[in-house]
Amino acid sequence: MIDIHSHILPGIDDGASTLKDSLEMARAAVDDGMDTIIATPHHQNGKYTNVSDEIMDQVAEFNIQLEKNQIPLTVLPGQETRIYGDFIEGLRSKEVLTLNNQGSYVFVEFPSDSVPRYTSKLLFDIQVEGYQPIIVHPERNREIIQHPDILYNLVKKGAFTQVTAASVTGRFGKNIKKFSHQLIEANLTHLIASDAHNTDSRGFCMSEAYEEIRESYGSSIVYLFTDNAEFVVNGEVLASDSPEQVRKKKKFMGIF
């Protein structure tokens, strides 16, 4: 199994603090069925700056440590970049790193409570530059929860999205779980990933999420998500169905 979103590298963001923590996360990932993980440290989120060259070096060193400790896991380079005005310049200068450095897919993170007004234009510009944007954890964005047509319009214009495994299983609360399932039902998400930060409060639970999806929607949807994770790693075209609008729902309160 492949996990395309994690904060497993030691000491560079709010994920693993030490090498020991990173190795514990690696063992937990293997126990949960993973053999490949993309490390996606935060970048340009107002607190952390992790440029592509530094990430590549840290991933190479961490894979050496995994081999030394006989942990059967491969870690690939990636980055979780907060949306910002100079995003395109970051891609051109190679400060922003595509997933597995394939030159195809790039994570785009929104602030937790809003979607900037320039988002649609920026995601279009990313595609014009030859990249494919993947919006991370939209199910936890307050504005998207309140106005899901925002996400529908972005997906309709070519953006992809990734929902967090813990959101699917209800670890972020029943309302976010409900919204996550609505996104799956409306073909508004294309990938499931852990966004793991540690082995306690923000663990992997990928196998649990896939089992929940299998029970709710059948094995074909699980295969779609797992195949898409492999496509991301290889820089291949993602499978997707036509997006639909989320059915009208009651306003969610007190979820953050």
UniProtKB/TrEMBL annotation:
<keyword id="KW-0904">Protein phosphatase</keyword>
<dbReference type="Pfam" id="PF19567">
    <property type="entry name" value="CpsB_CapC"/>
</dbReference>
<comment type="similarity">
    <text>Belongs to the metallo-dependent hydrolases superfamily. CpsB/CapC family.</text>
</comment>
<dbReference type="InterPro" id="IPR016667">
    <property type="entry name" value="Caps_polysacc_synth_CpsB/CapC"/>
</dbReference>
<dbReference type="InterPro" id="IPR016195">
    <property type="entry name" value="Pol/histidinol_Pase-like"/>
</dbReference>
<keyword id="KW-0378">Hydrolase</keyword>
<protein>
    <recommendedName>
        <fullName>Tyrosine-protein phosphatase</fullName>
        <ecNumber>3.1.3.48</ecNumber>
    </recommendedName>
</protein>
